[in-house]
Amino acid sequence: MTQPVKFKGDKVDLDLSPLGTTFKKARVFVMNKKTGNVAILEYTASKDQKVAKPIEVKEDAFTYVRTVKLKVVAEDGAPVESALVEITDGEGTPMSAIVTPSDTGVASFENVAAGEINVKVRTKGATRTIDSDIELPIKRKIPWFEKDIRVKGDVDTLQVLSQGNKAPAELGREGESSAGPRGDGLNSVLQTVAGLIFLILVITIIYAVLKSKGITTEQALRKMGVKLPGEGEASTEPGLEEASLPQVDPSLCPFCGQRRDASGNCACTIPSGSVSQTSVPTPGVPRLVGVAGTYMGQVFEIGSGSKTIGREAQCDIALIKDSTTSRRHATITASAGDYSIRDEGSSNGTFVNGARVTEQKLVPGDEIQIGGTRFRFEV
Questions:
Q1: Closest by alpha carbon to 373, among 302, 292, 316?
Q2: pLDDT in tens, 241-296
Q3: Distances (CA, A) of 372 to 56, 245, 291, 294
Q4: What separation in angstroms does the CA of 309 have from each of 78, 268, 314?
Q5: For a disulfide at 84, which of 39, 71, 113, 122, Cβ 3.0-4.6 Å?
Q6: What CA–CA distance (Å, rounded) separates 303 from 280?
Q7: pLDDT digits (tens, 9 = 90+) for 191-205
């Protein structure tokens, strides 16, 4: 080989002395720098070494592409780790190239005849070369030619590089232009904005689904195992729980709303000996204990049979101060030592341990949400 010579105009003198005088089947490669196309011509040495033999290169002789890069990728677009790539160019000439991990999936070929090219990829796990027939054009927007060749199968791939780490050849696909630093910055901003919009959309959908099922944010967090302030440990912000719950005047009766007298009695006080709602539990009797909300601290004994719960004063457990409780909200039934709760078609639903239920068996320690109060079932 001789050293490449750069020239402008329509002619140049070549120094063939490095080849000696006995060479045979020599070829001359002439490349058009602008198009990246190459003309390849056969050259036979002149018998008279003192007389230069002219080589005429016509425009239609530039039928080869100097640089062809075929990037072998899996179906998901990730470059393969290693492969043997075999092609047959537009003149039927076979060529092959090895892909190693440092090549990031790119097999490079030189001086490839334009036209229809057949490609075959051999790599572990590949069952088929998807882009096996491609067209190598003479006219291109860039001097080189580059195309992704997809393979089907369970092949070993490399981690996809970010845009900023791509090699220059990877940034210029056939028919595409490089965006440059300003384009990369704009893309980053657009991707960030798109990500925020997607996140807001997801949160909105989740909120709408929870609201349609009657599940509050607090209940959803508790169901996921998130411990809220006031559950098992003190709140990090004093007064937070008190501020979120209705403030009840201790001098007012929570049932009838009338002011208590000096003895603590009011208009709905039940004479001694009667069975009713009480704040002092009877040992061994199942009960509901208010742990948060409107009736926090109140104790309602259940006993045997069925007990109705609702806003009506006629209910066995009357929650008349809670406007979020339905008139006849739910029923707790005792049967053979077991207890269950059934929702009576309430507006805001009945929840056991954060999940909305129609009918649910109760075990000691279960937390029941009815209206604005959360109760704990105890035996």
A1: 292
A2: 444 444 556 666 555 555 666 666 654 454 433 333 444 555 667 899 999 988 99
A3: 96, 9, 11, 6
A4: 61, 18, 9
A5: 122
A6: 14
A7: 898 899 999 988 888
